[in-house]
């Protein structure tokens, strides 16, 4: 097996990297792919909590690189999906406890066992970020439709390209149809035009995400949730299926009418 | 573009966001501060003025990203012959 | 001997209890002593010499509460056992934990360490023998001891008692809602969807190769 390693990154914090990693990983596992999620945010681990696996952690990523345990011992099997594994970050250590070389060889080892390796990157562009992108094949940039987030995304795209990670893809998170409709939020085209990279998916703002995080259950497990469907579609696109972007930003009727009568 | 302009066109704040971003990103990408931009503009103008007569008041200079590359586009209107 | 005796040392003040007297008398003398002392103990550390006496959980707590009422938060309070004679005390602070938290503490070989304050996410406290924590252990924090671990507060993080393999080690807390409990080589986590509404102190120990949690009867 030769799996694909993908880093989920953003530059800016709080845009939904961890939520995206948890849900995209679960969605890929539901497509019968073997997936390992790596929490690369050493010292500020969270992926375990979003997946509801925090009380199963015995060994972590640092234990693996320091050879306190074997890789398999540290990989926590998801309680719902036997295809999904989590390699948690250490909580009581700092970013310097692991090096880029160690991450690279860890990912290469995992590629032999898994179809996908998703690395949840810490915010920022420091060593933690450098560790997270070491050895991966693709960068997925998460951005929200805000000036600060898009600006940071642009910076990250430049840094990824400088590291030879060309053609990163974009995930737009927390898009609000109502705000886009009345012209108070940048739409997909605006952001794609500015960043000039390929878009892989759009996730609508959804309060169910907060609820699912509270419970430690990824939203993709909920059939009805709109945001869950978005993650499932993104997983299918990663698998090469041709799924059109959801039309979450259809013009509101009011806007159409305005245009017809020539107000805008 | 000013806030008023965008608002008077009956559009929300997203265009302001977009225009601000485009401006910020140009600076981020070429690592040039607004002040340095102004200095460059002035120096370029001096050079051009050595050879041709241009109208100081109507010069436009902009850096934009087109597909795969960034480009600086400058407009130096020539002075009308009297 | 009086109910309590005090001794000044270079490290701080040692308070020696005479357990021949009943606990109420000891408590009252301690209170009176602090009343008289006023601000005398500002900035010095206190060592409660408990000797070989096995104090009950709530007795410990009462003694600390009395002290806390009279002392500023900078004053450290530590427990000293029997084998810690004066020489040991003078050469104290020798076995520091491996990953040092930002929490004040002092260690005595072969004895109990008291840690004051909340242990937060990302902080780790480690000690080769018994550990007493005066405060909460938050989720994401790790507490590890070669012997018993007692938490005067809410235990929500990861706790490992008997880390060197001591199977009769125990974990006790005023509220025991940990992410994970480990005792010696056994690991246990709270059951899924457990809605822990027990507000009384609990203790965890190994019984027939399994970790058992029980309410503590006072």
Q: How much of the polypeptide of chain B forms β-strand, as a percent range?
A: 15-25%
Biggest sheet of chain B: strands, sense, closure? 2 strands, antiparallel
Residue runs with pLDDT of under 50 for 5 or more positions of chain C: 82-109
Q: What would CATH call the class of the largest domain in chain C?
A: Mainly Beta
What oligomeric state do these chains adopt? heterotrimer
Give the strand order, joined by hyphens, for the main sheet of chain C.
Answer: 5-7-9-11-14-15
Query: What composes the largest sheet of chain C?
Result: 6 strands, mixed
User: Can you write the helix and strand succession of chain B as a string?
Assistant: HHHEE
- Largest interface: chains, residues each: A-B, 21 and 19 residues
Write the CATH architecture name of the largest domain in chain C. Answer: 3 Solenoid
Explain briefly what this protein structure is.
The complex is a heterotrimer of chains A (264), B (82) and C (218). Chain B has 82 residues and is an alpha+beta fold.
What does this protein structure show overall?
- The complex is a heterotrimer of chains A (264), B (82) and C (218).
- Helices cover 40% and strands 16% of the residues of chain A.
- Chain A has 264 residues and is an alpha/beta fold.
- Chain A has one domain (4-261): 3-Layer(aba) Sandwich (Rossmann fold), CATH 3.40.50.
- In chain A, helix 1 packs across helix 11 (226-238).
- Chain A is globular and about 55 Å long.
- With 82 residues, chain B is α+β, with helices and mostly antiparallel strands.
- Chain B has one domain (3-75).
- Chain B is 50% helix and 17% strand.
- Chain B is built from 3 helices and 2 strands; from the N terminus they run αααββ.
- Chain B has helices at residues 3-8, 14-30, 34-51, and strands spanning 60-66, 69-75.
- Chain B has a two-stranded antiparallel ribbon.
- In chain B, a hairpin with a 2-residue loop joins strand 1 and strand 2.
- By secondary structure, chain C is an alpha/beta fold.
- Chain C folds into 2 domains: 4-90, Alpha-Beta Plaits (2-Layer Sandwich), CATH 3.30.70; 113-215, Pectate Lyase C-like (3 Solenoid), CATH 2.160.20.70.
- Chain C has a 6-stranded mixed beta sheet, with no helix packed on it.
- The longest helix of chain C is centred in the first third of the chain and has 15 residues, at 23-37.
- Chain C starts with a strand and ends with a strand.
- The chains are: A alpha/beta (264), B alpha+beta (82), C alpha/beta (218).
- Chains in contact: A-B, A-C.
- The interface between A and B is medium-sized, with 21 and 19 residues.
